[in-house]
Amino acid sequence: MSTAETRACRPADYRSDVKPVWCPGCGDHHILLSFTRAFAELGQPPEQIAVFSGIGCSSRIPAYTNCYGFHGVHGRSLALAAGLKVTRPDLTVVVASGDGDGYSIGGNHFLHACRRNLDLTYVVMDNRVYGMTKGQPSPTTEPDFDTALSPGGTGVSPFHPLVIALASGANFVARAFSGDLNGTTGILVDAIRHPGFSFVEILSPCVTFRPDEKEWKGKVHQAPVQATDDPGRAARRLMTDDGFNVGVLYRGSRRPYRPEFGHAGVDVGELEKEFAL
Amino acid sequence: MTDPAKGPAISGLADLFAIAYRIEIDAVERYRLLADQMEVHNNLELVDTFRDLARAEGLHAEEIRRLAGDIDVAAQSRRIGGWTSEQSPEEADLSAVHYMMTPWHALRMALAGEQRALAFFERIVASTEDARIKALAQEFVAEETEHVALVHRLLRRHPPPPATWADDPDPPVSQE
Amino acid sequence: MRETPSVSVAIVGSGGAGALTTGNLLLEAAGTAGWHGFLTRSVGPQIRGGEAAALIRLSTRPVECPADCFDLLIAVDWLNVDRFHGEIPLGPASLVIGDAADVPAGITASGARVVAMPIKDMAKALPDGRPNMIALGIAAGLLGLRREVLATLLGKRLADKGRAAIDASTAAIKAGFDAAATLELAVRLPDPEPDAASRWLISGNEATGLGAVRGGIRFAAAYPITPATEILEWLAPNLAKVGGVLMQAEDELASINMIIGASYGGTPSLTATSGPGLSLMMEALGLATAAEIPIVVVDVMRAGPSTGIPTKSEQADLNLAVYGFHGDAPHLVLAPQSVADCLFTTQWAVFLAEALQAPAIVLSDQFIGQARAAISRPADVAFIGRRLAATGLGETYRRYALGGSGVSPMAVPGTRGAQYTADGLTHNEQGLPSGSAADHGGQLDKRRDKLERFSYGDRWASLEGDGDLAVVTWGSLTGAVREALDRARADGVAARLIAPRLLSPVQPERFAAALRGVSRLLVVEQTHGGQFHRYLRAHYELPGDVRAFHRPGPLPIRPGEIHREILEWRS
């Protein structure tokens, strides 16, 4: 989280004037509210927060906030954000992605971001479909989900993103549900405050391509246990996870990766000395 | 169900006024967001409906402010804690909307909101031991009862839509 | 023995013989003695123990290209030396020293004088004797380097190996000197002239790194790739010294996006790669262009296509660098012309990228990137990257405001009241997505105009000489062309050199001015398909008579070949 001074702001201060283009009923509307409420609760002024995204419906979110934002190319938001965080550790950096942007094309960067453990928060709005491009399966789509590109379903098992995050070294792992505004807000506050790489998967129903996801409201449930700091215990819990447990699973104690930056020990003019004959 | 135990704490009349005010202000803001969504999706009828609802909630908020007299409800409402486990009772459910929704749908949402608020104040009446808080909560029960009746009246003017209300002949469009 | 402006020495050996180390020491000794020098190397595919050749050219004048022929070849052994046949041209005036047995047929056929010397056996006769030190002694003796210079050098280089190692090496060098005492090269270098400037021993990749840091780079993210990795190896500790940092990324896609993110935050940033990596980076380069974020990407070109020949040079990434972006995405492309010029051009690239808020691709190549040179210390230049800051934010800040030079102030995150979202989507002046014709056209104009309106000054190209014949080249071939033109002038042929350093945006007016009076144009480049020739035809008015001389890697293009082309076009 940012080291700058806090300033009292209301959630509305974190919202820009741009009207979201998401379908009415999309879970991302709720998530935007959770973002603004979380930022207000943290007290970080909008100019101290940078929101990065890739491509997809969820990735539209930076322009809907009043923070600094970067709507980058598909799958690379974690890399963009890493560059900023290393050189501007004073800023609070939040990365927003979706199940396609984050788990498919962005999969490699996901692994390494967890491993690298920079102090930033990665929020993946999972709707188990590619919404922006009209409904193809994503890495978290059920194998029997019928789509135009995979009639009858892909037949391929989906990822379990929390398992991947935990195994790759993420320092904070949680799942939220977009419809649970208060719960999601609380998890986001926790995630941003927690040092190191925080991963939050937010189930966010797609009203247009996955109307069946309306059922999610009834299927999500608070995880019956408190967060653990033991990766082994967290892994065992994940083995019986039905995909709808909501809450913080794991709060680790790895030291965040923070390379030295900004303190010059030597004048640039000294660097040529090694070449002198 | 909105449970007063999970809402902001009530330690006096000022808090109860602030909560009642807050409920209306939260509703105003939520209806405005929905009006914006409808505007972006070219459902002009619903833009009007949601803006009307926002205006109505705004008037409710003004009434509470007037009722509160010297108490600065606006400032107090910013000081009290937010809703933690539950939603602000009259905040419309963002997941229950559709780009082709009709005024009937919006009014059903508004009805549900007013009913939740009514139940909220009824539970305060039932659970509080403070006479003055009980009395004030009773006033709010009366207010919310009127609001419920109002929405019922509006609903009579807007019949339920036909089963085909969500039929859009155009397929979804790929954007990026 | 005649005096000659340059002498070329090749030292070959395999399997731990240390040929490359010998080359390095010889270059350093020569540079210390006051000569200019240029060292390249050629290797087999093995990571260690493979056959290796150190190829050195020394001169009293700056050396920026290989000679046409080698004057001396010392072979510690003959294993797999055939691999280097094309890179070590020999002739009747050349001297070859090595084992009597197994002299390759190609060497015998060259007509070179072969003197038998069993270097490995000579080494075995000494305690801890190293063959490469004997070779060093032989070479130094034949070149006329003084033993004291070598002794000082040994003391420096072997200090951490202890007295015994230094003594053993000294003895081996003496053995080499003694063995060569009865021999003579056909040529001799004049004594070095005293140099007012101080001297450096530096590689092109190191000079690139130094230029970057001097220009203001403080963040680098990169993925290793031959032949660019040495830039990263130099930057890692040296950036840290000045408060910067280099981060190894998981791949090139991460590298390019990381530097964009860091630059967005206000830190001048750079990555270095080669052709395959630059291909991967194309999408994000477009993002940097569209979002107007300054970055520098160094491409140390190698032979392609695809995996190609990673250890050999070529100039065939020109098309990729200039035309590789999807959409209309004007950007900067620059090319250094020598080892020393790697410093200037990279520093200038940082300056231009920051001033113009655009990506700059620096096309270096394996030839100058991995070459080590003894050079005069380059003059300092004042180009330090500085981007137009957003100040006086009274009214609503518009990140991509139109008008003026086309460069709009760039707010730094953390600045209150100037929040904006950078975007690859086409946007309006505020930066919000917009697909309107006016916004798309307006922003396209802005990004083109800012580059075209900028005053690049005289450094855009090297322009030398006069005459109705112009030889146009770029990058690492500039030195070879320059030398060929010197010889042509000595033959009474007046010809001029045009070598653009700024390849994009193109400079039609200045190029036209450079061509005034030219009726014949010879284009020289190291590609198979004539990429530079087609680039010139696409963007510039060329005189009627144009000839193209191009050949792909892996062999360098030598001044003699270009000289012949010029002479053949006399009438």
Describe the structure in your own words.
By secondary structure, chain A is α/β, with parallel strands linked by helices. Chain A has helices spanning 27-42, 61-64, 77-87, 99-105, 107-116, 161-168, 181-193, 216-219, 231-239, and strands at 49-53, 68-71, 92-98, 121-126, 172-177, 198-203, 221-222, 245-251. Chain A has a single domain (22-275), classed as Rossmann fold. Chain A is 30% helix and 16% strand. In chain B, 64% of the residues lie in helices and 0% in strands. The mean pLDDT of chain B is 90. By secondary structure, chain C is of the alpha/beta class. In chain C, strand 14, helix 13 (339-356) and strand 15 form a beta-alpha-beta unit. In chain C, helix 4 (131-143) crosses helix 6. Chain C is globular. In chain C, 54% of the residues are buried. The model of chain C has no long low-confidence stretch (mean pLDDT 94). Classes of the chains: A alpha/beta (277), B mainly alpha (176), C alpha/beta (571). Chains in contact: A-B, A-C. Chains A and C meet through strand 1, strand 2, helix 3 and helix 5 of A and helix 1, strand 9, helix 7, helix 8 and helix 9 of C. Strand 2 (68-71) of chain A pairs parallel with strand 17 (421-423) of chain C, so a sheet runs across the interface.
Which descriptors apply to this entry?
heterotrimer, A: 277 residues, B: 176 residues, Ferritin, elongated
Low-confidence stretches of chain C: none
**CATH homologous superfamily grouping of chain A:** Thiamin diphosphate (ThDP)-binding fold, Pyr/PP domains
Strand content of chain C: 15-25%
Rounded mean pLDDT of chain C is 94
C-alpha geometry of chain A: globular
Number of strands of chain C: 23
Give the class of chain C from helix and strand content and strand pairing.
alpha/beta
Q: If classified by CATH, what would the architecture of chain A be?
A: 3-Layer(aba) Sandwich
Summarize the structure.
By secondary structure, chain A is of the alpha/beta class.
Topology record:
The complex is a heterotrimer of chains A (about 280), B (about 180) and C (about 575).
Chain A: H1 27-42, E1 49-53, H2 61-64, E2 68-71, H3 77-87, E3 92-98, H4 99-105, H5 107-116, E4 121-126, H6 161-168, E5 172-177, H7 181-193, E6 198-203, H8 216-219, E7 221-222, H9 231-239, E8 245-251
Parallel strand pairs in A: 1-2, 1-3, 3-4, 4-6, 5-6, 7-8
Antiparallel strand pairs in A: 5-8
Chain B: H1 13-40, H2 44-68, H3 73-79, H4 103-127, H5 131-157
Helix pairs in contact in B: 1-2, 1-3, 1-5, 2-4, 4-5
Chain C: E1 2-3, E2 6-13, H1 19-33, E3 36-43, E4 52-59, E5 72-75, E6 95-98, H2 105-109, E7 113-116, H3 119-124, H4 131-143, H5 147-157, H6 163-180, E8 187-188, E9 199-203, H7 204-215, E10 219-222, H8 229-241, E11 245-248, H9 252-264, E12 269-273, H10 275-280, H11 282-290, E13 295-301, H12 318-323, E14 332-334, H13 339-356, E15 359-365, H14 366-369, E16 372-376, E17 421-423, H15 437-452, E18 461-465, E19 469-472, H16 478-490, E20 495-500, E21 502-504, H17 508-514, E22 520-525, H18 531-539, E23 545-550, H19 559-568
Parallel strand pairs in C: 1-8, 2-5, 5-6, 6-7, 10-11, 10-12, 12-13, 13-15, 14-15, 19-20, 19-22, 22-23
Antiparallel strand pairs in C: 2-4, 3-4, 3-16, 9-16, 14-21, 18-20
Helix pairs in contact in C: 1-4, 4-6, 5-6, 7-8, 7-13, 16-19
